[in-house]
Amino acid sequence: MARILAVGNATLDIINVVDTYPHEDQELRARAQHIVRGGNACNTLVALSQLGHDGAWAGTLADEPDAQPILADLERHRINTGAVHMSPEGKVPTSYVILSQASGSRTIVHHRDLAEYSHHDFSRIDLGELDWIHFEGRNLDEVERMLERVKRERPTLPVSVEVEKPRPGIERLFHFADLLLFSRDYARAHGYRDASTFLAAVGGQAPNATLSCTWGDAGAWLRTAEGVELHAPAFPPPMTVDTLGAGDVFNAGIIDALVRGEELERALIEASRLAGKKCGVYGLNELVV
């Protein structure tokens, strides 16, 4: 069991399950509605908990009723919330999700009115107790200071950074990471049509890091610091029912395999297989049975 800290977001997800995605100005009835905890960092921790690891979350919540289901879900998955900052102002971030049964795809409208987690809060965390630390690539000025602290105080502590969105200046975080986890959206936003070409191009910005990039049904790619490229196919379930959080689960699969000392090729395959399994179930509670 590894002790893993994730720094990032938690949300309240309001998920409407519909037969097919609506047209503009269309009214339709939802088949079901679920209100659950979301957020990339927390999703990754929930998956890691099911894989046997001891997780902790560092993030911000508003001190209001909508925070309670988030905290309760994290407690169910044995995720430590001692580093969470409870803000007296703002609102718990909310994601309004349309989940299409026809395709299994999800469309998200996100609302946030809450301060991000600060380096001041992060400075109180004892890094000596950790085996791995994972960051969402957001809140860049503060996260950069957090990464500087990690490299100064625990230079051998493995660090992963998720790069999901093309935020201006996010590239300055790359050289701190041992593992960079890129999304297809980020690669496409920079004009790339395939993961292999993208990883070859971005490698120079993080010459000592392992890089990964998922590409939907084409599978996932990984590039080592030595320039060796690996590919794993997608592992689609018999029926795709819910892709929400699949990328977060893939990230958890990679971290799990590497912290256990698996070879990179095996880590990539295991992560792809786990993400495929997630697409065949609703939510994140049945990843490991």
How would you describe this structure to a colleague?
With 289 residues, the protein is an alpha/beta fold. 29% of the residues lie in helices and 26% in strands. Strands 4-1-9-10-11-12-13-14 form an eight-stranded mixed beta sheet, with helices on both faces. A four-stranded mixed beta sheet has the order 3-2-7-8. A two-stranded parallel sheet has the order 5-6. A hairpin with a 5-residue loop joins strand 13 and strand 14. It is globular, with a radius of gyration of 18 Å.
Any key phrases for this structure?
globular, 14 strands, single chain, eight-stranded mixed sheet, 29% helix, 8 helices, 289 residues, four-stranded mixed sheet, alpha/beta
Short description:
By secondary structure, the protein is of the alpha/beta class.
Q: Secondary-structure map with pairings?
A:
Layout: E1 3-7, E2 11-18, E3 32-38, H1 40-50, E4 54-58, E5 60-62, H2 67-76, E6 85-87, E7 91-100, E8 106-113, H3 119-122, E9 132-136, H4 140-153, E10 159-163, E11 179-182, H5 184-189, H6 195-202, E12 210-214, E13 220-223, E14 229-232, H7 246-259, H8 264-279
Parallel strand pairs: 1-4, 1-9, 2-7, 5-6, 9-10, 10-11, 11-12
Antiparallel strand pairs: 2-3, 7-8, 12-13, 13-14
Helix pairs in contact: 1-7, 7-8
